[in-house]
């Protein structure tokens, strides 16, 4: 039976896959919920979104996504608190950024209500898929791609917006060792590095494989021009603690404006931690590692929230970070996840209850 919630039509899946899922042993992004939101752009406008059964997508071989890479995405999470209330974290920021990314890739921007009402409706339909276990959440992947056809190198005339969901366990993979990149670049001035474009990830995989072969888990991206300034850690923003000051680079064409990054900056400032948003050179980090003032480095992004770095390689030399209790990484991660999961007050108004 079809039904309508928040003006969104719902076509229910005939069966559920939920009984096959072991919610106590969830990996990250491996199983998908019963439904997805689907919305098409055609005849010059976005058509009304629908919640439909999670299913494969049927595309023509000439669909422009395959040839010209017009595709952008978002990553967000829904959390269930102990009273089974459902919460999102700063979802409007994801909506705005999706449109910023779309605009840069000549993809038509989505109306806010299609994104927000579509998302809320999907979460209501797939409510049972939002894990209750501490540290688990429903990972949400909104994405838009060129589904219009033709080999002509120009923007497509049809697009598809989908939101798919994956119940996920915590992303924690232990501390990582990283390699400061001297040759390859993730992004360039005037390019698409600030957009969450699929192709940015494709371009990262090969240099990351090379780093893995050398015994590191992740690449620290440096500026494309001189490779002298630290920009991002893999697909996360990066923070460096020197003495008691937390430093992160300013957003630009090349650095993605992460929601976790800006939340950490605000939280840290509110906790009285000195924060500097400024260019940070590799030289400064290496010098601090040598004189012992380098205390912490960590990546920041939705999936892992905060991912501590154990050490880094640079020009054939390896540097270890000190191990100690009460790191900024652990206290800030706890602060953020407590706010996300409704365990703590939300002084910044970041949480949104889904109802
Ligand atoms: C998604 C992403 C981030 C983190 O953004 P959040 O909004 O915190 O999840 C950082 N850097 C890159 C390159 C990204 O793609």
TrEMBL record:
Catalysed reactions, as listed in the record: L-valine + 2-oxoglutarate = 3-methyl-2-oxobutanoate + L-glutamate; L-leucine + 2-oxoglutarate = 4-methyl-2-oxopentanoate + L-glutamate; L-isoleucine + 2-oxoglutarate = (S)-3-methyl-2-oxopentanoate + L-glutamate
Keyword Amino-acid biosynthesis: yes
EC number(s) stated in the UniProt entry for this protein: 2.6.1.42
Domain of life: Bacteria
Pathway connected to this protein: Amino-acid biosynthesis; L-valine biosynthesis; L-valine from pyruvate: step 4/4; Amino-acid biosynthesis; L-leucine biosynthesis; L-leucine from 3-methyl-2-oxobutanoate: step 4/4; Amino-acid biosynthesis; L-isoleucine biosynthesis; L-isoleucine from 2-oxobutanoate: step 4/4
Pfam families in alphabetical order: Aminotran_4
Molecular function terms from GO: branched-chain-amino-acid transaminase activity
Transferase is among the record's keywords: yes
Keywords associated with the record: Amino-acid biosynthesis, Aminotransferase, Branched-chain amino acid biosynthesis, Pyridoxal phosphate, Transferase
CDD domains, per database record: BCAT_beta_family
Classification via SUPFAM superfamilies: D-aminoacid aminotransferase-like PLP-dependent enzymes
Cofactor(s) this protein cannot do without: pyridoxal 5'-phosphate
Role description: Acts on leucine, isoleucine and valine.
Family: Belongs to the class-IV pyridoxal-phosphate-dependent aminotransferase family.
Record's protein name: Branched-chain-amino-acid aminotransferase
């Amino acid at each position: 039976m079809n039904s309508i919630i928040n003006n969104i039509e719902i076509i229910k899946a005939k069966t559920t896959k939920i009984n096959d899922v072991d919610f106590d042993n969830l990996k990250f992004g491996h199983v998908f919920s019963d439904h997805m939101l689907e919305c098409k752009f055609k005849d010059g406008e976005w058509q009304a979104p629908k919640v439909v059964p999670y299913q494969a997508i049927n595309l023509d071989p000439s669909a422009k996504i395959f040839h010209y890479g017009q595709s952008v995405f978002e990553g967000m999470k829904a959390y269930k608190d102990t009273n089974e209330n459902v919460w999102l974290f700063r979802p409007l920021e994801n909506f705005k950024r999706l449109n910023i990314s779309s605009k840069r890739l000549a993809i038509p921007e989505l109306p806010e209500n299609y994104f927000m009402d579509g998302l809320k409706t999907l979460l209501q339909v797939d409510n049972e898929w939002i894990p209750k276990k501490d540290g688990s959440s429903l990972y949400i992947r909104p994405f838009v791609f060129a589904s219009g056809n033709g080999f002509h190198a120009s923007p497509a005339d049809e697009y598809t917006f989908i939101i798919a969901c994956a119940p996920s366990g915590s992303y924690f993979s232990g501390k990582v060792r990283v390699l400061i990149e001297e040759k390859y670049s993730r992004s360039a001035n005037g390019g698409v590095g600030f957009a969450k474009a699929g192709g940015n990830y494709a371009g990262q995989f090969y240099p990351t494989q090379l780093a893995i072969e050398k015994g590191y888990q992740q690449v620290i991206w440096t500026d494309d021009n001189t490779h002298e300034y630290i920009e991002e850690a893999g697909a996360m923003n990066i923070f460096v603690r020197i003495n008691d000051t937390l430093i992160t680079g300013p957003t630009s064409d090349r650095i993605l404006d992460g929601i976790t990054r800006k939340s950490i900056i605000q939280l840290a400032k509110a906790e009285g931690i000195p924060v500097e948003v400024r260019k940070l050179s590799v030289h400064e980090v290496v010098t601090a590692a040598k004189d012992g003032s380098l205390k912490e480095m960590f990546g920041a992004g939705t999936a892992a929230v905060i991912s501590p770095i154990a050490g880094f390689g640079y020009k054939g030399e390896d540097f270890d970070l000190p191990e100690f209790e009460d790191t900024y990484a652990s206290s800030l991660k706890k602060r953020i996840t407590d706010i996300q999961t409704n365990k703590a007050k939300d002084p910044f108004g970041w949480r949104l209850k889904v109802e």
